[in-house]
Design goal:
This protein has 15 helices and 18 strands. It is α/β, with parallel strands linked by helices. The protein has a 6-stranded parallel β-sheet with strand order 3-2-1-4-5-6, sandwiched between helices. Strands 9-8-7-10-11-12 form a 6-stranded parallel β-sheet, covered by helices on one side. A 6-stranded mixed β-sheet has the order 13-14-15-16-18-17, sandwiched between helices. Helix 6 links the parallel strand 7 (162-167) and strand 8 (194-198). Helix 1 packs across helix 5, helix 6 (174-189) packs parallel to helix 8 and helix 7 (205-214) runs antiparallel to helix 11 (331-338). The chain is elongated and about 85 Å long.
Length: 475
């Protein structure tokens, strides 16, 4: 919530620039267009902001950012004194007047703006920056308080506790791993030790190469006791469905997916951003923490892989983060991560996907690859089939243990694979890339591999075509 104190000519310009982005409360002794402001969802308090009761009525203690913009220096000083007392945790931006350079001396004002040098647009930009500063202040406070709690518990208990565990989603991808690395770097810069844990397996040859080449230390969740940690952070997911275990309490969530069913004291979820690595890179930039070669390389690859080389759901912030990281990355290591040796099994699955493909309606390829041990060969096969002439959509599926795994890719902008696989099998993903898994169920009893192939192929194909809207007679 943003509180704007002073709604004169300059204050109006600032409000017009930020009003559609945040919840705003305006305080001034006289406000002419109250009805118009209320229609726009802006809260209005008419009164003298040098009066503490007026500030309390405006719930100044709940404000994230406070702008002090009246044109009277003495009044601004009095308002600032009250705001500092009643809203100590807010980020405060105050207007400066020529000739009164030291007006806010002794007060905890975060940014002083001289309006002769800075216009309303500059303050609007400062508000955007202040939101992140405020958020990072909260993150630091949470981590340091958790650290204090850990120290106290160590003194009172025989078994010592560790400060922070950063948990990724099941089968972590480069974005999740890099994001966890960045959060670990930030927390340790603040003196809070951290460890990273994952569930499932590290798949893809690229992911394995990334971990080995960058020397990333990850703990398997099976070897971790959540009760040993005072703070639990979750990165690159905000849904319980993607966690290897559900902690009794989550303190921090940082993610870019729009499927949240988890809550935490600190939450930063931005669905419009292409990668969680982008959000953590922005944190590093704001905190002036220069990333190591390995961290920068991991973050760059995390952004690159999650946006499909900046072709999928990419925001301006993703490009800015990648540009920032560019000068820090190790290009040789990045090339080695992107082009690892392909395992024999993956090559065999690619061959089976090609040989077993069945094309529907001229451009949709479905391929059953049988029983496999490496589920990550499926998306590689789906990507590979998509390169074939005339193919715009691919569905590759196989049996991994007691489950049927499906990976899908498309170049057809009329299709949304995430929605299709969610509706068909409860899966999910992006518009152009998605995955799903379903229990093998009664098919487990079928011992004949050819019979099993026919049953699985028919069941998957029928359901997919039904959801896409292709009638059986068109197959």
């Amino acid at each position: 919530m943003i509180t704007v104190i002073g709604y004169g000519t300059f204050g109006k310009k600032v409000v017009n620039l930020i009003k559609n982005k945040e919840s705003i409360t305006i305080i001034d002794v006289k406000i002419d267009d109250i009805d118009d402001l209320l229609k726009e969802g802006i809260k209005v308090i008419v009164g003298d902001a040098t009066d503490e009761n007026v500030l309390k009525k405006a719930k100044i203690d709940k404000a994230d950012i406070v702008l002090i913009l009246t044109n009277n220096p003495e009044i601004n000083r009095k308002i600032a004194e009250n705001v500092c007392k009643l809203s100590p945790k807010s980020y405060k931006i105050a207007r400066a007047i020529p000739g009164y350079h030291e007006i806010y001396m002794g007060l905890n004002i975060d940014k002083v703006i001289n309006i002769l040098e800075s216009g309303a647009k500059d303050i609007a930009k400062e508000v955007e920056s202040a939101k992140l500063k405020r958020k990072l202040m909260n993150l630091k406070y949470l981590l340091l308080e958790g650290m204090k709690k850990c120290i106290n518990e160590k003194e009172n208990e025989e078994e010592s506790k560790r400060p922070l565990l950063i948990l990724t989603h099941i089968n972590p991808d480069p974005d999740a791993i890099a994001s966890a690395m960045a959060l670990k770097t930030i927390s340790e810069r603040w003196g809070v030790e951290a460890e990273i844990a994952y569930g499932g397996s590290i798949g893809y040859d690229e992911n394995k190469a990334m971990i080995n080449l960058l020397g990333i230390n990850l703990l398997n969740i099976e070897n971790v006791n959540l009760n040993d940690y005072c703070i639990i952070a979750v990165v690159d997911t905000s849904t319980s469905k993607q966690l290897p275990v559900l902690p009794p309490k989550i303190d921090i969530i940082i993610d870019h997916h729009n499927n949240s069913d988890l809550t935490a004291e600190y939450v930063d979820i931005r669905p419009k951003v292409g990668a969680t690595s982008t959000i953590l890179t922005q944190y590093l930039m704001e905190l002036n923490i220069e990333p190591s070669r390995n961290l920068a390389t991991a973050l760059f690859y995390g952004i690159q892989s999650d946006t499909d080389y900046f072709k999928r759901e990419t925001s301006k912030l993703d490009f800015e983060a990648a540009a920032y990281l560019q000068s820090y990355i190790d290009a040789t290591l990045l090339n080695m991560i992107e082009n690892p040796e392909i395992s024999t099994e993956v090559m065999e699955v690619l061959a089976r996907a090609i040989m077993n493909r069945k094309v529907v309606k001229g451009n949709i390829a479905l391929s059953y690859v049988g029983e496999i041990s490496n589920r990550d060969a499926l998306p590689k096969a789906a990507d590979f089939l998509l390169k074939m002439e005339g193919i715009s959509t691919t569905f590759v599926f196989g049996i991994v243990g007691d489950e049927i795994h499906i990976s899908a890719r498309t170049k057809d902008l009329r299709l949304n694979l995430g929605e299709i696989l969610n509706k068909a099998f409860g899966g999910g993903g992006h518009q152009t890339a998605a995955a799903a898994k379903i229990p093998l169920g009664i098919f487990k009893a079928v011992s004949d591999k050819e019979a099993l192939r026919k049953l699985v192929e028919e069941a998957i194909r029928t359901k997919l075509l039904e959801v896409i809207g292709i009638k059986e007679e068109e197959k």
